[in-house]
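Can't paste images in this forum, so I'm doing it all in text. The chain is below; anyone willing to post the predicted structure tokens underneath?
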Amino acid sequence: MKRLALFIMLMTAFVSAQDSTATAPKSPKKAVAYSIIPGGGQLYNGKKIKAALMFGAQFWMLYKFQTNRSAYNLWDDGSYMKPREYYRDNRNKYAWYSTFVYIYNLADALVDSHLSDFDEKDEKVDKTQN
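Text version of the structure:
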């Protein structure tokens, strides 16, 4: 899990460092609206790798939540080696992780859309000063 989180952070930083080739500023409202589906706002902003990471992270968190929820509910079956509280704690942990990934997805799409024409603004200022 720690490796996955580290990988996601590194890939997000790598993708964020790449140059944006956007020609027109993006609408923050549309970016957030598309982000209702994890990764949609990143696709709208032209960040394909980041969109795949957001969708994958959200999918993974929901998968682990569901797996632990099922194990917790079916624990009386006797086929589980760990105590029932282990599955309850993991279920709750992945529910929180999923919430944080979703909020990060929304915030990231919003910030990327606001900064979509950032480089263009710098170029305009440099041209007027010369």
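Helices lie at 2-17, 28-34, 40-44, 48-73, 84-114, 118-129. The two ends are 52 Å apart (CA to CA).
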